[in-house]
Structure formats: structure tokens, C-alpha cells
Write a structure and sequence with these properties.
This protein is mainly β. The chain has an eight-stranded antiparallel β-barrel. This is YceI family protein.
Length: 175
């Protein structure tokens, strides 16, 4: 395939995260509103251009009180910093359909380079003749690197909220 523009089908895609809570459990959540500009040959992502943004106010951890707190200045401060953005800068093939995608993540007014493992899941035509491609991505980052330091010490040792946030992205895109 040649390099082409792809549109993310948000009804068949997801952006999820996991973070440890109280050193003993994991809390999972999702972001419902996101978009991407992708220009790529899905069978060779090394020359792709990827711009991705997440509306942080769309956070959903299945607990409305927690979600409201996460939107405040204690965490995301969505009034001042409404988006998390990613802009690819380097893509390296690591195996058949496997890539390390490095780019600038901007969150909470801080920009840092992060790398995510991305898998090309395949491509084909849907029943209406539209070309589709699927991608999976995983990675993690330290929230403290972005100034997200709200926490509480636990009586038994450790902290209420872990520093590492694990990200999982599933994308279905249309040509």
C-alpha cells in the first residue's frame, strides 16, 4: 500500500488506562473522546505521521465522584489543560508488524518524549468497500513527569496512587 490519510473510527476504537491504587489493586478507565490525524502505509509504519489528541474531560473510571476529582487542578486541571496530545517523531520497526513509535506527549503543560509499542493488526475492506486498518498500542509513563503529583501516604506504607500509568490503545481506521 502507499502512504495515505486515515481517519480513526472512534466507535470501533478505544483509549484505556490502568493505574495501581493503594499498592494492592488496579483501577481502570477510558477516555471517550479522542481524535487522530494519521498519514501512513499501514504495512510499513516507519514513514508514518501520527497526531493524536485526547479530551481529558471525557475520562470515565465508572465512578462519577472520582472522575470529577480527576478533572480538577489536583490532577488534569482540564479547564487550563483540556487535551493530552501526541505527535510522532520516530518510528522503528521491531518485528513483523511491530513498531516502537516515539513522539512528543504534551500533558498538563509539559512535553516529553515517550515510546509506545504498536502492532499493525491487519487491513481489509468492510462490506461497503471501505479500506480499514487496525492497530494496537501499549505503553506507560510516569504521571510525576508531567507535574501530576497529587497523592497520599498510606498508614501501612506506600502511596494511594502509583506513579506509573499504563496505556492501551485499539484503533480501527478508515482510508
Amino acid at each position: 500500500m502507499a502512504k495515505a490519510k486515515w481517519t480513526v473510527d472512534t466507535t470501533h476504537s478505544s483509549v484505556d488506562f490502568t493505574i495501581r491504587h493503594m499498592m494492592i489493586a488496579k483501577v481502570k478507565g477510558t477516555f471517550h473522546t479522542f481524535e487522530a490525524e494519521i498519514e501512513a502505509d499501514p504495512e510499513d509504519l516507519t514513514s508514518a505521521d501520527v497526531n493524536f489528541s485526547i479530551d481529558l474531560s471525557s475520562i470515565d473510571t465508572r465512578n462519577s465522584d472520582r472522575d470529577a476529582h480527576l478533572r480538577t487542578a489536583d490532577f488534569f486541571d482540564v479547564e487550563q489543560f483540556p487535551l493530552l496530545t501526541f505527535k510522532s517523531s520516530q518510528i522503528v520497526k521491531t518485528g513483523e508488524g511491530e513498531y516502537d513509535v516515539t513522539g512528543d506527549v504534551t500533558l498538563h503543560g509539559v512535553t516529553r518524549s515517550e515510546t509506545f509499542a504498536v502492532t499493525f493488526e491487519g487491513s481489509g475492506k468492510d462490506p461497503w468497500g471501505n479500506e480499514k486498518a487496525g492497530f494496537s498500542g501499549q505503553g506507560s509513563f510516569k504521571r510525576s513527569d508531567y507535574g501530576l503529583t497529587y497523592n497520599a501516604a498510606l498508614e501501612t506504607g506506600g502511596v494511594l496512587i502509583a506513579d506509573e500509568v499504563k496505556i492501551s490503545i485499539e484503533i480501527e481506521a478508515s482510508k
